[in-house]
Structures are given as structure tokens and as C-alpha cells.
Design a protein that fits this description.
Helices cover 33% and strands 13% of the residues. By secondary structure, it is of the alpha+beta class.
Length: 453
């Protein structure tokens, strides 16, 4: 402690105190975190863990570590001083005046970069909140306070001990379930929501009600003036099932909002978060090409139930010349697939009498096309009908007429005995017309003219 002069206390909490200090021989100021060491060995190891984890984090969006030492029963961690204060103070200074979306996205992009660096090292922060995110004098964002952080043994490991601030705790922690990096995503979503609304996403007057809201993911939507991408991101970060939440890498690289975030990233950071694509290695591709070049196409034919396979080798010049590659044999084929491959597009009704060679004669094709010609509606004005109706008196419109009598002279109501036309019950082929196309030789307009004439 002798090499530092304490200027003032800038924060106090359950951990101890945060002091603004200045080295004796330097002009730059630092923050010194003073932590009282417990008597138990396990407690001492947990206290030292923060210094160890922070010393491993070297990233422009994480508070820089300077040194740590122990003296007089205390652990002292010296780190970078962020003169802009924390985000919680910055939110309170707004006094109900919302941040612009550009400012929010700029800060959030830097938060994601810092969190990605932590997660890439298999470390969970476990206490991401606006009070633990700091601003420098130039406006850069720094993640700090690793007192609750823990390291996982593998990328698929889970933590189980409850740690965090109630307003930012994920549903799986309240449900006493194991959790991983997706719990930090939930907390990060809470911070993003605070920047957009200046309020906590989940608020209540009692613990029980707060926990219910968190576990249901029930929150008031963002103000409508924010972009759809921001609404969509908040919705995904507040998924109650952690598997449905995006990772930080997904948010930065392939999420809907990533395009907006990239506007606020420097070029070197954009390269770090680009989606990884797997490419063939050149030497492996050449090996595969050489292997395939030694093989030929296998032509399979079936003769009297026996499968015969012919295989021939390619000549040396076939490998380099694409035009000399082996092709499928062209000839008579007695398989269904072969027939369909060479078949013309014809009517299904004509297939019954066509030979299974895949082709039909020209006469048969012409006959089929003539039969398939459908009758068209007469588009000319019905002059005769209009002329007849023009001469008809209005009273004719209220009377009933039988315009069509068959040759037997049936009455309007028909014979007493019902005669069934069995020919109409027989199935009809696809080639026969079935709708509005039966040919009538009866001139019903002529009969109408005679009735009204």
C-alpha cells in the first residue's frame, strides 16, 4: 500500500471498498479494490479467484488488470480507472430522456465483444449489470467486477451455484437448474433493455412476483420507435429456454441485428466475429480428384432378372479433358426410369395404347392433340338474344317456360316413372370433356324467338 496514495473512496459494498489511488511515481490514476480476506482457506481461494480471472482478460472492452497483492488481511486488486462512471449512473443522468438507438447499439456492440472474449475463455461473468459496466472518458465500454465470475472445465459444462443480482438473474437460476453462458446472455438482455427504456425489464413489489415474471419472460415491449431488429433481439435474449437464446457470437455474426452492430465496430473487430466457413483444403481436394479419376461410371442393366455390372477404366487423358468423360449409355432400355427419361409429354389416356419405347407415332400425337382441343366461350355479343329480349314484354319475365322438349314430348314435370340413364354413371376417360363442353345441336334462342313472336 505504501506505493499508492489514496485520493478517495468511490464505492462500497459487501465485497469491501473501491478506492481511487495514484502511484507515487506516476500521474495516471487507478482503481484499487480492497477485499477483506476470510479466515477459511476456501474463502481465501475464492477471493483470489477474481484477481486470477481478471489478469487473464486482456481485451479493449474489459477493465485492464494492473496488479494484485495482499497486506494486513486484505486482498488488493489494482485495475484501470474508468472516469466516465458506470452505466447505471449514466442511465440515471438521462432523467427520462431516452438514448438514441445509435448510442445504444454502439455500447451494446462493445459489451458483446467483451462478453465474447470472456466466454471464449470458458468463463462466466455471472453478474453482468449496468453497475458493473463502465465508461471511459472517450466513451468506450468496459466490463468489470469479476468477483462473481467462475471458470468452466469445458465448453459444455454448467455452473450450479446461485450468484447474481435479482433483477438480472435468468429463469434457469431461479428454477435451481444448471446454467451456462446463456445465463449471461439473459443478463446482457436486461442491460440492453435498460438502455432502451431506462427501466428494469422485470420489476415487482415482491420477490415472488418478480420471480414469476422472470420465469414467464413477461416484460413490457420496447417503445415502437426502435427498429424491428432491436425488438427481435430483445425477444430472443429473453427466451425462457436457454437453448433458444442466441450466443454472443451469433448476435455479432449472424443475427438480424448483427448488420446494425457492425456499423459500430472497428475493422479488426469485424474480422474477429465473422462467421467461420469450412472450405476444402486444396491438397485434400486434389487427393479426392485423383481417386475419382481412377474410377469409371458403372452402367447397370437388368437382363432376365440378372444384374450385370460393367466397369471400365479411364485412359490417362480422360482426367484432364472434361469432354472425354464417360457418359451414360444411350440405347434401348427396358426399365421404367429409362422409358420415362426419353418419353414425350403426352396425355395419360394415350399412354395405355402407346408402346413402351418412350415415343409415339406422329399420327397418334396429332390425333391426341386434336382430341385435347377444348371448346372456347363465344366472345362475340349475343345479338340474336339481345334483339329477342328487346322485343319481349315485361310480363314474360315473370312466367315459366319449357324451352327444351325432347322428341317424346315429355311434360314439364317429366314422366311418373323415373328412368335412370346408366350411361352417365359409367366412368369417363381423361380424354373426354367433362365440363361445359358437350355439343348441342338444339337452337334454344330460335325457340325463344318463336314463343315471343
Amino acid at each position: 500500500m505504501d506505493q499508492y496514495s489514496v485520493e478517495k473512496v468511490i464505492g462500497e459494498g459487501s465485497f469491501g471498498r473501491a478506492l481511487l489511488v495514484q502511484p507515487v511515481n506516476e500521474e495516471q490514476k487507478y482503481v484499487m479494490k480492497e477485499i477483506r480476506l476470510p479466515k477459511a482457506d476456501s474463502g481465501i481461494r475464492n477471493s483470489r479467484r477474481e484477481a486470477v480471472l481478471l489478469s487473464r482478460m486482456k481485451h479493449p472492452n474489459i477493465v485492464a488488470f494492473k496488479e494484485s497483492f495482499e497486506a494486513d488481511g486484505h486482498l488488493y486488486i489494482v485495475m484501470q480507472f474508468c472516469s466516465g462512471g458506470d452505466l447505471l449512473q449514466r442511465i440515471r443522468q438521462q432523467k427520462n430522456v431516452l438514448f438514441t438507438e445509435d448510442v445504444i447499439l454502439k455500447w451494446f456492440a462493445q459489451m458483446c465483444l467483451g462478453t465474447k472474449h470472456i466466454h471464449d475463455k470458458r468463463v462466466l461473468h455471472r453478474d453482468l449489470k449496468s453497475k458493473n459496466i463502465f465508461l471511459t472518458e472517450s466513451g468506450s465500454v468496459k466490463l468489470g467486477d469479476f468477483g462473481s465470475a467462475c471458470s468452466l472445465n469445458s465448453g459444455k459444462a454448467y455452473a450450479q451455484t446461485y450468484v447474481g443480482t435479482p433483477y438480472y438473474v435468468s429463469p434457469e437460476i431461479w428454477d435451481n437448474k444448471p446454467y451456462n453462458n446463456k445465463s449471461d446472455i439473459w443478463s446482457l438482455g436486461c442491460v440492453l433493455y435498460e438502455l432502451c427504456t431506462l427501466q428494469h425489464p422485470f420489476q415487482s413489489c415482491s420477490w415472488k412476483s418478480l420471480i414469476l415474471k422472470v420465469c414467464r419472460g413477461a416484460y413490457t415491449p420496447l417503445p415502437s420507435h426502435f427498429s424491428y431488429e432491436l425488438h427481435y433481439l430483445i425477444k430472443n435474449m429473453f427466451k425462457t429456454n436457454p437453448k433458444d437464446r442466441p450466443s454472443v457470437h451469433t448476435i455479432l455474426s449472424s443475427h438480424r441485428v448483427s448488420r446494425l452492430l457492425h456499423k459500430h465496430l472497428v475493422p479488426e473487430n469485424k474480422e474477429l466475429v465473422q462467421e467461420r466457413t469450412h472450405h476444402w483444403r486444396r491438397e485434400k481436394g486434389e487427393e479426392v480428384a485423383m481417386f475419382l479419376g481412377q474410377k469409371s461410371l458403372v452402367i447397370t442393366t437388368t437382363t432376365e432378372g440378372t444384374m450385370q455390372v460393367e466397369q471400365s477404366t479411364l485412359e490417362n487423358n480422360c482426367i484432364d479433358d472434361p469432354a472425354s468423360r464417360k457418359r451414360w449409355a444411350v440405347g434401348t432400355c427396358n426399365t421404367v426410369l429409362g422409358v420415362l427419361r426419353n418419353a414425350d409429354i403426352i396425355s395419360t389416356g394415350s399412354m395405355e395404347n402407346a408402346e413402351l419405347t418412350g415415343r409415339i407415332s406422329e399420327a397418334e400425337c396429332t390425333k391426341t392433340q386434336e382430341r385435347r382441343v377444348r371448346k372456347q366461350w363465344d366472345k362475340d355479343p349475343p345479338e340474336r338474344l339481345l334483339s329477342a329480349l328487346e322485343k319481349a314484354q315485361l310480363c314474360y319475365g315473370f312466367e315459366t317456360y319449357t324451352l327444351h322438349r325432347d322428341e317424346h314430348g315429355d311434360k314439364v314435370d317429366g314422366p311418373e316413372e323415373i328412368i335412370t340413364d346408366y350411361s352417365r354413371l359409367e366412368p369417363r376417360s381423361d380424354d373426354e370433356d367433362t365440363d361445359f363442353e358437350e355439343e348441342f345441336s338444339y337452337d334454344w334462342i330460335n325457340e325463344l324467338e318463336e314463343l315471343m313472336g
